[in-house]
Amino acid sequence: MAHELITSENGGPTPRRIADSYVQALADLDPLTAIYLGVNLDDDRLTDLSPAGSDALADLGRRTLAELDAAEAAGAADSEAERRCARLLRERLTAELAVHDAGENYVAVRNLGSPVHNVREVFTIMPTATEDDWGLIGRRLARVPQAIAQYRETLAAGIERGLLSGPRQVATVIDQIAEWLEGEVPGGWFGTFVQDAPEALRAELGATAVAATDALSELRDWLAEVYAPAAADTPDTVGRERYARFVRYWTGADLDLDEAYRWAWEQFHDLDAQMRTEAEKVLPGSTPMQAMKWLETDGPAIKGEEAVREYLQGLMDGAINDLQGTHFDLAEPLLKVESRLAPAGSAAAPYYTQPSLDFSRPGRTWLPTLGRESFPVWDLVSTWYHEGVPGHHLQLAQWTYVANKLSTYQVTLGGVSANLEGWALYAERLMDELGYLTDPGARLGYLNAQMMRALRVIVDIGMHAGLDFPADSPYRAGEPMLPDAAREFFGLYCGLSSDFLDSELVRYLGLPGQAIGYKLGERAWLQGRAAAKAAAEARGEEFDLKAWHMAALSQGSLGLDDLVAELAAL
């Protein structure tokens, strides 16, 4: 597919058409992204993970910005819909190019969302219903060794340039790959995956899986023997300049980091007080940590992986049934969302994957089981309101549904993490406001989730920007926010497992700036709702929350620089 610019009837391009032309071209250059979009379904390639592949994507971004410049100069952004799309496209591509031009593609060793993670995880969303589907899987699986070689080429170039990931990332990824290599059948995770293939293809696919796994094994050994020694003295944190660049990428805003840090500490103290009140209801005389530990070991729990998958499916189905027509007006395709178990070796956090553009692949939530057989429910309820309904699923599936009224770009590639995660955290709060979290254990789980997001702002900004614990901190006041201290502080005030918190710390160090978008994004959504409600009341009108929700979810992606004003005007 060539980058062929789609034009309007009068022969001139518009921002929305330029944006969608960009999506088409990027899907051709980046087959992994195409799979998530549900396009180019017969393409059996994997993305070029070499430096040349990254440069080609950057060149596409620069050409697209030049086309946007010309279109705006010609007056093509002549409506609010076109102006909104143009703002988003320019901001996103500029932020992405800033990250690329700083050489961050050479530092792509991290425990979540790295190129090698994406190569593996893409197989979990490919269709598997027919023999032809498995044939396509086999052809793509045969390309895994080449993709891993390209990824290694990029990392080797990073070593030459002095651009390396920190030791914690390297050690974690080595351990993750080691887990992928394990399995009862040859070929590790890939070998287990192809066991579900039709019998006629199973032997061939099994051999292909072994070759892919051998390439992973070689990558693990190279990371341990070559990359890890080279990265041994690399700081785990990125410093304020790099951090600010990542904050723009993840939030769509140039945030005042010191203000955000102070605000997060205010949230910490408020949530700590609320959690102490709720803990007393769960276990009289206990602290929040004691109450959460009791809930984890002695509270209600679901036994077995399939049982917990069904439980989470029931939570989402029940939320859709209750909210439809009362607080949301959902089209039929949005009523289906699937609960799935995440593949072994995933990071510890649950996640959601968006439906394909034609809804042939529904939205899905994914629970990493981490080898467990018992699943306490106290912290699952609000989490699935976040990941599923009314969280990520309602926003991302609604974006998909209205793509033809906006642009494909605005509802897919142009997504701003802080907008997405802010809505999902708002969704948790909404369910609390609507009375769905009255059970003391479930509400303590919700408050703990809010505390986790406040702590993320504190430790992420504190570590990377080199800040100190403030004077009113109950822990090491006045001392620097170093990773080990941040991990200990996090564990003292967040009732999640040690393994989960260890994974979280590595995540923050590997994706600087991403974790702050949850709480800061929620703040923007709440500010926008409050302003819209105040404006309606000033006009003498009753605020229609359902109408506001649907209008807010139908405007596509926005960065935090634009979100509050746009929400206030609805």
TrEMBL record:
Cross-referenced InterPro entries: DUF885
Superkingdom of this protein's organism: Bacteria
The name this protein goes by in its record: DUF885 domain-containing protein
Originating organism: Kitasatospora terrestris
